[in-house]
Amino acid sequence: MKALHFGAGNIGRGFIGKLLADAGVTLTFADVNQVVLDALNARHSYQVHVVGEQEQVDTVSGVDAVSSVGEEVVELIAGVDMITTAVGPVVLERIAPTIVKGLALRRARGNEQPLNIIACENMVRGTTQLKGHVFNALAAEDKAWVEGHVGFVDSAVDRIVPPSASASGDPLEVTVETFSEWIVDKTQFNGAPPAIPGMELTDNLMAFVERKLFTLNTGHAITAYLGKQVGHRTIRDTIIDGSIRAVVQGAMEESGAVLIKRYGFDPEKHAAYIRKILGRFENPYLEDDVERVGRQPLRKLSAGDRLIKPLLGTLEYGLPHHNLVLGIAAAMHYRSEEDPQARELAQLIADKGPRDALAQISGLDANSEVVAEAVRAYHAGE
Which end is more exposed in the chain, N or C (fewer Cβ atoms within 10 Å of the end residue's Cβ)? Predict the structure, then answer.
């Protein structure tokens, strides 16, 4: 089996790329970072440091790489069995034209083998969004062929992979936590799903997408925003601060009540899942900056993302949401000169005031009680 993976960054190498290579898949990375491409092609291997109570170093081997903007990647798309991505949500639209070229070449060459594309991004139904970008760029005569021969498979991914500098200066070394989860929608495959250890199949993906979004992503973001407000540097420093931990856990319990109501999750098992997530935030072997986790606050305050979507669930079911509101208010305070979205957020609040800025970003009703609650919490944090 041959696979092409867009994104040779830390997440691509440390998570999905590693799973594919470990499964014996012939794997090629596509990226724009020439230093990483050259290193992969010179060595065809790299090391992954898995950190936790029992640290280990795994070697991923048998890989190579191509530029994601050259003709080689188009050739590969015409012949591989699977395409995966870990490029970040905003980059999906940029790689769609290249995928379109490859699919057109695949059809022209008469390749009738099933191809499955899985976007492994920190977003809800990222592959469906990628499919939309692809179909917007496809020629009309190719659309029916692509529908019949290509599966666009949504997935939920979960592994903390913070940026880490190699002590040896190796551009390929990557550090990851022990925990990982890759859940895919088995109903969307073209042909039989491949047997890849670490890839779990489900016919109820949204339950797991929202479990991860409402727990890991919600808790992670609120930890980052509260930590940034009080001057903590890392996620671990923040979550061991008892007052912040209480808000983070409270927010995850509030979002968890939505999941239990919506999907019938077992309350005791979900409480255990929350405890596991908090334990992951505490991992002393991971140096994870609050600025990394908090970046792109406009996206994280949007209606379908980790702060507002669980809040909307609490409103739908008439459930408490005090801690979620505190997290939203903290996100509104997020400032980073390195982050264009943080600068845009600050300007929006300066121009419109916190109430109207939040309503514009989130889609919430500016005159609603929950926006008033968030504004009160925002002012209390000034």
Answer: C
Angle formed at CA 361 by CA 161 and CA 244, multiple of 5 degrees:
50
Residues 94 and 73: their CA atoms lie apart, in Å, by 14
DSSP tag of 91 = G
User: Residue 231's beta-bridge partner residues?
Assistant: none
Rounded to the nearest 10 degrees, the angle between the axes of helix 340-362 and helix 322-332 is 140
- Give the pair of three-digit tokens for residue 378: 């925002």
pTM: 0.84
Task: For 192-242, list the strands marked E by DSSP.
Answer: 199-202
pLDDT beneath 50, residues of the chain: none
- With residues binned 3-state (H G I as helix, E B as strand, rest as coil), the percentages for the chain, rounded to 5, are 55, 15, 30
Per-residue pLDDT tens digits for 140-167:
999 999 999 999 999 999 998 877 655 5
Residues listed for the chain: 382
Q: Let me know: does 127 contact 152? Beta carbons within 8 Å.
A: yes
Which option is the CATH number for 206-380: 1.10.1040.10, 3.40.250.10, 3.40.30.10, 1.10.10.10?
A: 1.10.1040.10
**d(Cα 371, Cα 369) in Å, to the nearest integer?**
5
Instruction: Assess contact for 85 and 17: CB atoms under 8 A.
Output: no
Are the beta carbons of 211 and 186 closer than 8 angstroms?
A: no
Residue 333 CB coordination number (10 Å): 19
| CB-CB contact of 140 with 146 (8 Å) | no
Q: Residue 114: what pLDDT?
A: 97
Question: Can you say whether the dihedral through the CA atoms of 362, 368, 373, 375 is positive or negative?
Answer: positive
Question: What does the pLDDT read at residue 167?
Answer: 56
Which residue from 58, 111, 117 is spatially nearest to 92, judged by alpha carbons? Answer: 117
- Name the CATH superfamily for 2-202: NAD(P)-binding Rossmann-like Domain (3.40.50.720)
Q: Measuring CA to CA, which residue among 197, 193, 118, 207 is closest to residue 155?
A: 118
- 351-373 pLDDT per residue, tens: 999 999 999 999 999 999 999 99
**204 phi/psi in degrees, rounded to 5:** -135, 60
Domain residue extents for the chain: 2-202, 206-380
